[in-house]
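Exercise 7. Given the components listed, write out the predicted structure of the assembled complex. Treat all entries as one system.
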Amino acid sequence: NAGVTQTPKFQVLKTGQSMTLQCAQDMNHEYMSWYRQDPGMGLRLIHYSVGAGITDQGEVPNGYNVSRSTTEDFPLRLLSAAPSQTSVYFCASSYGVTYNEQFFGPGTRLTVL
Amino acid sequence: QQPVQSPQAVILREGEDAVINCSSSKALYSVHWYRQKHGEAPVFLMILLKGGEQKGHDKISASFNEKKQQSSLYLTASQLSYSGTYFCGTFNSGNTPLVFGKGTRLSVIA
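Answer.
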């Protein structure tokens, strides 16, 4: 099993550009989520999904869109990148939330100029 | 709503003990603990469930006080490999996602 994979590992964007961060898992997990990590702020939840076709907002959803058309994939879209979105982004998945560990991807380091 | 962790940072010598606390303003269903090494992804340590059940690590223990809405992570006889940032994540109800605290940076020195 590859676990949770994220692409790209690094990305530099200009303000106003759009892009999609990819996340995939091969463990048949229902629950998937996106976090951003900034110094001193911990892991903040952007969006999450409890299954294919179901998504919801987390703590910091503004400027991001998600969709979940399959169990395996959960892409994160930046609509119009801003310097405030410079961060490290982690995708995570698990069988459920309450009783199951989260498996994290390796992260994407995004810089917006 | 983010749980609150304390302390923010701690420095230990090898062999010393540490306690990291996590508290929530809402009732807790479960508390998750993760450790992150610099430049890496967070890695699962343990889950504490309402009712006292625990799942996770052999060498690290934790407690879960449901009434106080708190959890504590106990690191005993610390090793250099324990260094990293520790995050607690809380799950408040069936309709809310897992939310993490800001982390506690632990440095173990020789």
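Discussion: Chain B has no helices and eleven strands. Residues 55 and 86 of chain B are 17 Å apart (CA to CA).
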